[in-house]
Amino acid sequence: MAFIDLRSDTVTNPTDKMREAMFKAEVGDDVYGDDPTMKELEQYAAELCGKEAAIFVPSGTFGNQLALFTHCNRGDEVILADDCHIVAHEVGASSVIAGVQLRTLNSVKGMIDPMEVKRKIRKASDDIHYPGTSLICVENAHSSGRVIPLTKMESIYNIAKENDISVHLDGARLFNASAYLKVKPSEICGYADSIMFCLSKGLCAPVGSILAGNNEFISKAKKNRKLMGGGLRQSGILAAAGLVALKEMINQPIVDHENAKYLANELSKIPGITVNDDIHINMVFFNMQDTNYSSCKLVEEFYSKKVKINGEENGEMRFVTNYWVSKKDIDYVIKTFKEILDVD
Protein backbone atom coordinates (compact mmCIF):
# COMPACT_ATOMS: atom_id res chain seq x y z
CA MET A 1 0.00 0.00 0.00
CA ALA A 2 1.33 3.47 -0.95
CA PHE A 3 1.27 6.23 1.63
CA ILE A 4 -1.74 8.54 1.88
CA ASP A 5 -0.28 11.99 2.44
CA LEU A 6 -2.46 14.59 4.18
CA ARG A 7 0.36 16.90 5.31
CA SER A 8 -0.19 19.45 2.53
CA ASP A 9 -1.03 19.82 -1.14
CA THR A 10 2.67 20.60 -1.67
CA VAL A 11 3.30 16.84 -1.63
CA THR A 12 1.56 16.22 -4.96
CA ASN A 13 3.46 14.33 -7.64
CA PRO A 14 3.27 15.31 -11.32
CA THR A 15 0.67 13.52 -13.42
CA ASP A 16 1.60 11.14 -16.24
CA LYS A 17 0.75 13.84 -18.80
CA MET A 18 3.13 16.21 -17.06
CA ARG A 19 5.94 13.68 -17.08
CA GLU A 20 5.40 13.05 -20.79
CA ALA A 21 5.30 16.78 -21.56
CA MET A 22 8.51 17.34 -19.60
CA PHE A 23 10.24 14.54 -21.50
CA LYS A 24 9.26 15.99 -24.87
CA ALA A 25 9.64 19.69 -24.04
CA GLU A 26 11.40 21.97 -26.51
CA VAL A 27 13.91 23.99 -24.50
CA GLY A 28 16.49 26.75 -24.73
CA ASP A 29 18.46 29.03 -22.42
CA ASP A 30 15.76 31.06 -20.70
CA VAL A 31 18.20 33.66 -19.34
CA TYR A 32 18.86 34.55 -22.98
CA GLY A 33 15.11 34.39 -23.64
CA ASP A 34 15.55 31.34 -25.84
CA ASP A 35 13.19 28.85 -24.22
CA PRO A 36 9.98 28.57 -26.29
CA THR A 37 8.12 26.44 -23.77
CA MET A 38 8.80 28.91 -20.98
CA LYS A 39 7.67 31.79 -23.18
CA GLU A 40 4.42 29.96 -23.88
CA LEU A 41 3.82 29.30 -20.20
CA GLU A 42 4.47 32.88 -19.17
CA GLN A 43 2.20 34.30 -21.86
CA TYR A 44 -0.57 31.82 -21.04
CA ALA A 45 -0.27 32.55 -17.29
CA ALA A 46 -0.39 36.32 -17.86
CA GLU A 47 -3.55 36.02 -19.95
CA LEU A 48 -5.15 33.78 -17.32
CA CYS A 49 -4.54 36.51 -14.72
CA GLY A 50 -5.62 39.33 -17.00
CA LYS A 51 -2.16 40.91 -16.79
CA GLU A 52 0.32 42.08 -19.43
CA ALA A 53 3.22 39.82 -18.53
CA ALA A 54 4.46 37.07 -16.22
CA ILE A 55 7.64 35.30 -15.19
CA PHE A 56 8.35 31.85 -13.83
CA VAL A 57 9.96 31.59 -10.39
CA PRO A 58 11.18 28.54 -8.46
CA SER A 59 8.70 28.78 -5.57
CA GLY A 60 5.87 30.73 -4.02
CA THR A 61 8.11 32.24 -1.37
CA PHE A 62 10.54 33.31 -4.11
CA GLY A 63 7.66 34.94 -6.01
CA ASN A 64 6.34 36.84 -3.00
CA GLN A 65 9.78 38.07 -2.00
CA LEU A 66 10.58 39.05 -5.58
CA ALA A 67 7.38 41.11 -5.61
CA LEU A 68 8.37 42.95 -2.42
CA PHE A 69 11.90 43.46 -3.75
CA THR A 70 10.55 44.88 -7.03
CA HIS A 71 7.74 47.07 -5.67
CA CYS A 72 9.65 48.59 -2.75
CA ASN A 73 12.77 50.55 -1.94
CA ARG A 74 14.86 49.59 1.07
CA GLY A 75 13.37 50.99 4.26
CA ASP A 76 9.84 51.20 2.84
CA GLU A 77 6.88 49.89 4.79
CA VAL A 78 4.57 47.06 3.71
CA ILE A 79 1.09 46.66 5.21
CA LEU A 80 -0.24 43.11 5.54
CA ALA A 81 -2.04 40.70 7.88
CA ASP A 82 -0.24 39.42 10.95
CA ASP A 83 -0.98 35.79 10.05
CA CYS A 84 -0.29 35.86 6.31
CA HIS A 85 2.24 33.54 4.72
CA ILE A 86 4.77 36.32 4.02
CA VAL A 87 4.91 37.08 7.74
CA ALA A 88 4.47 33.64 9.25
CA HIS A 89 6.24 31.21 6.92
CA GLU A 90 8.84 32.96 4.79
CA VAL A 91 11.79 33.02 7.21
CA GLY A 92 11.86 36.79 7.63
CA ALA A 93 13.04 37.06 4.02
CA SER A 94 11.49 40.50 3.54
CA SER A 95 14.05 42.01 5.92
CA VAL A 96 16.95 40.22 4.23
CA ILE A 97 16.09 40.58 0.53
CA ALA A 98 13.91 43.67 0.09
CA GLY A 99 15.03 45.34 3.32
CA VAL A 100 11.51 46.49 4.12
CA GLN A 101 9.58 46.96 7.32
CA LEU A 102 6.42 44.89 7.73
CA ARG A 103 3.53 46.65 9.41
CA THR A 104 1.20 43.87 10.45
CA LEU A 105 -2.51 44.37 11.09
CA ASN A 106 -4.82 42.19 13.13
CA SER A 107 -6.40 39.49 10.97
CA VAL A 108 -9.87 38.06 11.52
CA LYS A 109 -10.22 34.79 9.63
CA GLY A 110 -7.54 35.93 7.20
CA MET A 111 -9.12 39.35 6.62
CA ILE A 112 -7.81 42.77 7.52
CA ASP A 113 -10.09 45.78 7.96
CA PRO A 114 -9.83 48.13 4.96
CA MET A 115 -10.37 51.14 7.22
CA GLU A 116 -7.49 50.02 9.42
CA VAL A 117 -5.35 49.73 6.31
CA LYS A 118 -6.28 53.29 5.43
CA ARG A 119 -5.37 54.53 8.91
CA LYS A 120 -1.98 52.82 8.86
CA ILE A 121 -0.77 54.22 5.53
CA ARG A 122 2.18 56.55 6.07
CA LYS A 123 3.89 58.98 3.71
CA ALA A 124 7.59 59.54 4.22
CA SER A 125 7.13 63.18 3.27
CA ASP A 126 4.72 63.79 6.17
CA ASP A 127 7.28 63.39 8.94
CA ILE A 128 11.04 62.81 9.05
CA HIS A 129 10.40 59.88 11.43
CA TYR A 130 8.14 57.95 9.04
CA PRO A 131 8.95 55.27 6.54
CA GLY A 132 6.80 55.48 3.44
CA THR A 133 4.14 52.85 2.75
CA SER A 134 4.83 51.47 -0.72
CA LEU A 135 2.92 48.18 -0.79
CA ILE A 136 -0.12 46.39 0.62
CA CYS A 137 -0.19 42.60 0.51
CA VAL A 138 -3.28 40.41 0.58
CA GLU A 139 -3.56 36.63 0.50
CA ASN A 140 -6.34 34.71 -1.23
CA ALA A 141 -6.99 31.87 -0.59
CA HIS A 142 -5.53 32.50 2.85
CA SER A 143 -3.19 29.92 4.34
CA SER A 144 -5.73 29.51 7.14
CA GLY A 145 -7.90 27.75 4.55
CA ARG A 146 -10.34 30.63 4.21
CA VAL A 147 -11.25 32.59 1.09
CA ILE A 148 -11.43 36.39 1.24
CA PRO A 149 -14.55 38.02 -0.28
CA LEU A 150 -13.91 40.10 -3.37
CA THR A 151 -15.62 43.07 -1.73
CA LYS A 152 -12.83 43.16 0.86
CA MET A 153 -10.17 42.98 -1.82
CA GLU A 154 -11.87 45.72 -3.82
CA SER A 155 -12.05 48.04 -0.81
CA ILE A 156 -8.35 47.60 -0.04
CA TYR A 157 -7.41 48.03 -3.70
CA ASN A 158 -9.39 51.27 -3.99
CA ILE A 159 -7.74 52.65 -0.85
CA ALA A 160 -4.33 51.72 -2.27
CA LYS A 161 -5.04 53.49 -5.56
CA GLU A 162 -6.26 56.61 -3.75
CA ASN A 163 -2.85 56.73 -2.07
CA ASP A 164 -0.76 55.72 -5.09
CA ILE A 165 0.29 52.44 -3.46
CA SER A 166 0.65 49.06 -5.17
CA VAL A 167 -1.14 45.88 -4.08
CA HIS A 168 0.43 42.42 -4.24
CA LEU A 169 -1.69 39.28 -4.09
CA ASP A 170 -0.20 36.15 -2.60
CA GLY A 171 -2.40 33.83 -4.63
CA ALA A 172 -0.47 30.63 -3.93
CA ARG A 173 -3.84 28.87 -4.03
CA LEU A 174 -5.49 31.29 -6.46
CA PHE A 175 -7.44 28.53 -8.20
CA ASN A 176 -8.82 27.28 -4.90
CA ALA A 177 -10.13 30.79 -4.25
CA SER A 178 -11.49 30.95 -7.80
CA ALA A 179 -13.31 27.64 -7.34
CA TYR A 180 -14.82 28.69 -4.02
CA LEU A 181 -15.93 32.12 -5.25
CA LYS A 182 -17.10 30.71 -8.60
CA VAL A 183 -15.31 33.45 -10.53
CA LYS A 184 -12.51 33.51 -13.10
CA PRO A 185 -8.99 33.90 -11.69
CA SER A 186 -8.65 37.19 -13.58
CA GLU A 187 -11.55 38.65 -11.58
CA ILE A 188 -9.63 38.08 -8.34
CA CYS A 189 -6.40 39.35 -9.91
CA GLY A 190 -8.17 42.52 -10.99
CA TYR A 191 -7.79 43.81 -7.42
CA ALA A 192 -3.99 43.52 -7.39
CA ASP A 193 -1.09 45.03 -9.31
CA SER A 194 1.01 41.89 -9.03
CA ILE A 195 0.03 38.27 -8.39
CA MET A 196 1.96 35.22 -7.38
CA PHE A 197 0.36 31.81 -7.80
CA CYS A 198 1.74 28.29 -7.50
CA LEU A 199 1.85 25.76 -10.31
CA SER A 200 2.55 23.10 -7.71
CA LYS A 201 0.28 22.36 -4.75
CA GLY A 202 -3.23 21.51 -6.00
CA LEU A 203 -2.24 21.80 -9.66
CA CYS A 204 0.38 19.02 -9.28
CA ALA A 205 3.29 20.56 -11.20
CA PRO A 206 6.55 19.44 -9.58
CA VAL A 207 8.25 22.85 -9.37
CA GLY A 208 7.46 26.50 -9.82
CA SER A 209 5.23 29.52 -9.40
CA ILE A 210 4.25 32.50 -11.52
CA LEU A 211 4.60 36.21 -10.81
CA ALA A 212 2.39 38.37 -13.03
CA GLY A 213 1.90 42.12 -13.48
CA ASN A 214 2.30 44.88 -16.03
CA ASN A 215 5.16 45.01 -18.51
CA GLU A 216 7.21 47.54 -16.56
CA PHE A 217 6.93 45.58 -13.31
CA ILE A 218 7.86 42.26 -14.90
CA SER A 219 10.81 43.80 -16.76
CA LYS A 220 12.19 45.07 -13.46
CA ALA A 221 11.36 41.78 -11.73
CA LYS A 222 13.36 39.80 -14.32
CA LYS A 223 16.54 41.62 -13.35
CA ASN A 224 15.77 41.17 -9.66
CA ARG A 225 15.05 37.48 -10.25
CA LYS A 226 18.53 37.14 -11.75
CA LEU A 227 20.01 38.91 -8.71
CA MET A 228 18.20 36.45 -6.42
CA GLY A 229 19.59 33.44 -8.30
CA GLY A 230 16.37 32.63 -10.11
CA GLY A 231 17.66 32.92 -13.66
CA LEU A 232 17.18 29.37 -14.90
CA ARG A 233 18.52 27.86 -18.09
CA GLN A 234 16.64 25.07 -19.94
CA SER A 235 13.64 25.65 -17.72
CA GLY A 236 11.16 24.63 -20.41
CA ILE A 237 11.25 21.16 -18.88
CA LEU A 238 9.54 22.66 -15.83
CA ALA A 239 7.37 24.99 -17.90
CA ALA A 240 5.96 22.01 -19.80
CA ALA A 241 4.51 20.62 -16.58
CA GLY A 242 3.22 24.07 -15.70
CA LEU A 243 1.34 24.31 -18.98
CA VAL A 244 -0.38 20.99 -18.32
CA ALA A 245 -1.24 22.26 -14.83
CA LEU A 246 -2.88 25.43 -16.16
CA LYS A 247 -4.64 23.81 -19.11
CA GLU A 248 -5.90 20.65 -17.43
CA MET A 249 -5.78 20.97 -13.63
CA ILE A 250 -7.30 24.31 -12.64
CA ASN A 251 -10.69 22.67 -12.01
CA GLN A 252 -9.16 20.02 -9.74
CA PRO A 253 -9.69 22.21 -6.63
CA ILE A 254 -13.45 21.69 -7.02
CA VAL A 255 -12.95 17.97 -6.42
CA ASP A 256 -10.46 18.58 -3.61
CA HIS A 257 -12.90 20.93 -1.86
CA GLU A 258 -15.69 18.37 -2.00
CA ASN A 259 -13.37 15.72 -0.58
CA ALA A 260 -12.35 18.13 2.19
CA LYS A 261 -15.99 18.65 3.13
CA TYR A 262 -16.51 14.90 3.20
CA LEU A 263 -13.40 14.48 5.36
CA ALA A 264 -14.56 17.22 7.74
CA ASN A 265 -18.00 15.65 8.09
CA GLU A 266 -16.56 12.23 8.89
CA LEU A 267 -14.02 13.66 11.34
CA SER A 268 -16.77 15.50 13.20
CA LYS A 269 -18.42 12.15 13.97
CA ILE A 270 -15.38 10.96 15.96
CA PRO A 271 -15.81 11.54 19.71
CA GLY A 272 -13.45 14.22 21.02
CA ILE A 273 -12.74 15.79 17.63
CA THR A 274 -13.87 19.38 17.04
CA VAL A 275 -13.76 20.47 13.39
CA ASN A 276 -13.50 24.07 12.23
CA ASP A 277 -16.68 24.75 10.27
CA ASP A 278 -15.08 27.09 7.74
CA ILE A 279 -14.20 24.56 5.04
CA HIS A 280 -13.64 26.90 2.12
CA ILE A 281 -10.93 25.06 0.23
CA ASN A 282 -9.01 21.78 0.55
CA MET A 283 -7.93 22.27 4.17
CA VAL A 284 -9.61 20.79 7.22
CA PHE A 285 -8.58 22.26 10.57
CA PHE A 286 -9.58 20.53 13.80
CA ASN A 287 -8.50 20.00 17.38
CA MET A 288 -8.42 16.79 19.36
CA GLN A 289 -7.82 18.20 22.83
CA ASP A 290 -10.89 16.44 24.22
CA THR A 291 -9.37 13.07 23.28
CA ASN A 292 -6.32 13.63 25.54
CA TYR A 293 -4.29 11.96 22.81
CA SER A 294 -0.85 13.31 21.91
CA SER A 295 -0.59 14.69 18.38
CA CYS A 296 3.05 13.53 18.24
CA LYS A 297 1.95 9.99 19.01
CA LEU A 298 -0.85 10.30 16.46
CA VAL A 299 1.70 11.20 13.77
CA GLU A 300 3.69 8.05 14.62
CA GLU A 301 0.63 5.80 14.72
CA PHE A 302 -0.68 7.06 11.40
CA TYR A 303 2.73 6.68 9.80
CA SER A 304 2.88 3.03 10.89
CA LYS A 305 -0.41 2.59 9.04
CA LYS A 306 0.80 4.27 5.83
CA VAL A 307 -0.69 7.72 6.43
CA LYS A 308 1.44 10.86 6.64
CA ILE A 309 0.18 13.79 8.73
CA ASN A 310 1.68 16.77 10.52
CA GLY A 311 1.46 17.37 14.24
CA GLU A 312 -0.51 20.21 15.72
CA GLU A 313 0.41 23.88 15.33
CA ASN A 314 -0.97 26.35 17.88
CA GLY A 315 -3.32 23.67 19.15
CA GLU A 316 -4.78 22.82 15.75
CA MET A 317 -4.36 19.87 13.42
CA ARG A 318 -4.67 20.20 9.65
CA PHE A 319 -5.48 17.62 6.99
CA VAL A 320 -5.18 18.67 3.34
CA THR A 321 -6.81 16.92 0.40
CA ASN A 322 -5.30 16.87 -3.08
CA TYR A 323 -5.38 15.11 -6.45
CA TRP A 324 -3.74 11.99 -5.00
CA VAL A 325 -6.19 11.61 -2.08
CA SER A 326 -9.39 9.82 -3.05
CA LYS A 327 -12.65 9.37 -1.19
CA LYS A 328 -11.63 5.78 -0.59
CA ASP A 329 -8.40 7.04 0.99
CA ILE A 330 -10.43 9.31 3.26
CA ASP A 331 -12.54 6.37 4.40
CA TYR A 332 -9.35 4.51 5.30
CA VAL A 333 -8.03 7.53 7.23
CA ILE A 334 -11.26 7.82 9.23
CA LYS A 335 -11.30 4.09 9.98
CA THR A 336 -7.66 4.24 11.06
CA PHE A 337 -8.25 7.32 13.22
CA LYS A 338 -11.04 5.54 15.09
CA GLU A 339 -8.85 2.49 15.61
CA ILE A 340 -6.02 4.60 17.00
CA LEU A 341 -8.34 6.41 19.42
CA ASP A 342 -10.18 3.14 20.15
CA VAL A 343 -13.62 4.60 19.49
CA ASP A 344 -16.56 3.50 17.37
Automatic annotation (TrEMBL):
Residues 5-287 form the Aromatic amino acid beta-eliminating lyase/threonine aldolase domain. Keywords: Lyase, Pyridoxal phosphate. The keyword Lyase applies. Pfam families: Beta_elim_lyase. It comes from the Bacteria. CDD domains: TA_like. Signal peptide: none annotated. Its cofactor is pyridoxal 5'-phosphate. GO terms for cellular component: cytosol. The modification N6-(pyridoxal phosphate)lysine is found at K201. One of its GO terms (biological process) is glycine biosynthetic process. InterPro entries: ArAA_b-elim_lyase/Thr_aldolase, Low_specificity_L-TA-like, PyrdxlP-dep_Trfase, PyrdxlP-dep_Trfase_major, PyrdxlP-dep_Trfase_small. One of its GO terms (molecular function) is L-allo-threonine aldolase activity. PANTHER family: L-THREONINE ALDOLASE, L-THREONINE ALDOLASE-RELATED. Belongs to the threonine aldolase family. NCBIfam families: GntG_guanitoxin, PRK10534.1. This is L-threonine aldolase.
